Hints:
Blueprint: H1 51-61, H2 68-96, H3 107-119, H4 121-128, H5 133-137, E1 140-143, H6 152-172, H7 174-185, H8 189-195, E2 198-201, H9 206-213, H10 221-250, H11 255-281, E3 303-308, E4 315-319, E5 331-341, E6 344-353
Antiparallel strand pairs: 1-2, 3-4, 4-5, 5-6
Amino acid sequence: xxxxxxxxxxxxxxxxxxxxxxxxxxxxxxxxxxxxxxxxxxxxxxxxxxxxxxxxxxxxxxxxxxxxxxxxxxxxxxxxxxxxxxxxxxxxxxxxxxxxxxxxxxxxxxxxxxxxxxxxxxxxxxxxxxxxxxxxxxxxxxxxxxxxxxxxxxxxxxxxxxxxxxxxxxxxxxxxxxxxxxxxxxxxxxxxxxxxxxxxxxxxxxxxxxxxxxxxxxxxxxxxxxxxxxxxxxxxxxxxxxxxxxxxxxxxxxxxxxxxxxxxxxxxxxxxxxxxxxxxxxxxxxxxxxxxxxxxxxxxxxxxxxxxxxxxxxxxxxxxxxxxxxxxxxxxxxxxxxxxxxxxxxxxxxxxxxxxxxxxxxxxxxxxxxxxxxx
Length: 375
């Protein structure tokens, strides 16, 4: 109800204005300004508030925004809940899995849906209940600028931003990024500023919340656009990594790949000898004898010959017989990469590949394109 004297927006149950103590018109009565004689004078004491008004006044005096420690405690409690619920749901799926033996593919979407529901359960409680368990235990809730609960979509977006961008960036560089996020978005954090929500005391009235949040400014459109672009870039990168890992995992088991992986590990001492020769002389060794490997018995186990190209440092190792038909007599080729260090060229990483071993028999670390590098 709006005060006719000072235009302060009061709660509907008030009979006196919270700002100027002027009497408010009774609901259903004829509207209009009250006579000046009805307003209390400066010397006249204000009448004692009624019980309902007293509770409202006490709610106005409650600190609206909780401190950092209570909010951190609520985050830890909710994070523990997000860890326990998905695990419990996955265990329930494991025990119930025999019931899906007739249609095993039907169980996976159900298990995924239950896990997602467990992860977003605090957000759903913020949107449809009195707050997540952590906030309820510590006397807090999530509210919009009007003091109402956020909707499901806004609450889930807030929850996602909080536990991915805000928490992830803070944990990446704990002190620096926390300072940066606080300077850009204030104590509300990125997730609260981007979604227009506030963590407030559950004892604070809607009027007190509206009065307090009116002083809080949100981020501008440029900062919001930068956050959205950054989030999309991070999501795209994570998607590409996930797709790459998924495609690798789809390849069937191949014992030859493990053999190549072991041979690659055995070849590393040879590459170290080539690096030492280059750093000492400034040139690549002319042959295997230049690094002390003139005889085949001096080579690492699994190899029978070594060739070095002095022009570009390419190392070509011939696999000994006994590794299996796809690998016997084939080659692992190592191409050095150069990098600048203190104004001088130096050896960087070695790219492992082969020009005569089928790709499906190569380990993932030895699939660089080195065909024609050395013969």
